[in-house]
Amino acid sequence: MNNDHIINTPQHPDDEQGESPRRSEDLLNEFSLFINRKQQDLSKLGNQFESKTAKHRQALENSTEQIGYQLVTENIGTVKQVGDGVAIISGLKGVMENELVVFPDGTYGLAMDLHEYTVGCVILGSGENIQAGDIVRETGRVVDVPVGKELLGRVVNALGQPIDGLGPIETKDYRPIEFPALGFIHRSPIDTPLQTGIKAIDSIIPLGKGQRELIIGDRQTGKSAIAIDTVINQKNQNVYCIYVCIGQKMSTVAQIVETFREHGAMDYTTVISASAEDSPSLIYLAPYAGCAMAEEFMYSGQDALVIYDDLSKHAIAYRQLSLLLERPAGREAYPGDIFYLHSRLLERSANLSTEKGGGSMTALPIVETQAGNISAYIPTNLISITDGQIYLSTNLFDEGILPAIDIGLSVSRVGGSAQNDAMRAVSKDLSLDVAQYLELRVFARFGTELDMETRHQLDRGEKIRTILTQPQFQPLPVAHQVAVIYAATEGYLDQVPVNQIPEFESLFIRHLQQTHGGLLAEFSAGHWHAELEDELRKSLENFINRLYETGFLKEEEEMEI
Fold this sequence. Notes:
Layout: H1 20-66, E1 76-83, E2 86-91, E3 99-102, E4 108-114, E5 118-123, E6 135-142, E7 144-146, E8 155-156, E9 174-176, H2 199-204, E10 214-217, H3 223-232, E11 239-246, H4 250-262, E12 269-274, H5 280-299, E13 303-309, H6 311-324, H7 338-346, E14 360-368, H8 377-385, E15 388-392, H9 394-398, E16 411-412, H10 421-426, H11 430-444, H12 452-467, H13 478-489, H14 501-515, H15 517-524, H16 530-550
Parallel strand pairs: 8-12, 10-14, 10-15, 11-12, 11-13, 13-14
Antiparallel strand pairs: 1-2, 1-6, 2-5, 3-4, 3-6, 4-5, 7-9, 15-16
Helix pairs in contact: 5-6, 7-8, 11-12, 12-13, 13-15
């Protein structure tokens, strides 16, 4: 057998031994591709899932941050006792003096008495719905009132809220009712006159811008009339007026407002009313609210006039509150700080220096006396605080001398510094003439035989006092006052009967307006010199001669002896 000859036997088709390596490799490749595709799909799904999850997670974080809780502390107290407009509250730790607190019904209260465990609050309202156990909350702010020119022409209450039915007051400026008085280093001397239009005041008891002049007298002697005339006389004088009615009847307040409207004074005036119907707390706050409104004008470089009518009722309201708060009583049952009550109010009036803007606030407080007792507690306090007083006498009022100013008891501590040159020149001897007349009249009552010179002095004194008499609501410009007072003091009225003096005055003023307008303009500017005096003298002489010619004045007939 030939070993070199080999017979190859063909393989069976089912025998896959030859193709096994190739097919396994294909399967592995296909499986790898499948796995890659699945991994890619899973990667895409993962990315999509992570993207959506991140958005949802961020939204969830934002929502949880907004829903989070914040700890807020609030100082509250509990009403322990309430009655007569006063509430005693426990708690309120850290409350400030004169801070506003709120009762559950929305009524405000004023924290006045701060004790270790309790706070005495006066209720700024009726307080009908306040009862023991109510929760009281702090406001964090002291009492303030709206200020600015938006309040001119309006009638408001002690909190600055309108009560005239003319709608809300659109203002964004507020001032606290309590404010420290400016130091004397920032004040200027009072040297600018504030004309009242009343001859007896402008000539003998002059007022200056920044002054505090007390108007004192018994009931129904014309105290408010002087204040009203002063407000009316500020028309076109760039002086803003605040008239505070303290404890007055609402009918009286309505009459004052109507008088201001008739004379065009409401255009520059704000009336604050704390009537007798209001609670003592609002009466207590009223003058401070008026002072804050006037201060706004002063600190903005303008001139303001504030009138407190009257502070005796203000003291009574404060005494009532103090007794309800169980403060110890002093003289006449007033609390010991009654002097400080009014001094911190009136000391805020000032004439500011130019560095502070040059504004001014003039105060005219009014106080009522009982049977002319000016040595009572409240009147003496106010006399010592103010820069002078205008005393109104009941006897003079009964005699028909209006305004019933007692020259002997009235004084202005500013004096001639608050007068212009013209008024100072013509009135320098006026006070002395009136005082001498009053003394001589006492001797004349005894029926003593008087010589001719004394009788002549009595006659001139009576005519001077007559020329100082003035009807209400008729204030005179300073130029007219200068001319009339010069005529009286220089003896030009000696030839005029007493009963004809009022008519002589009106005719002479009309004569000056028609023929000597330039002279009146000089007097209005405060100018006075020899040429002006000579022109005024000649005008008087010519006018009196014309009165004789027309028959208004008649020559005295010589008596036969």
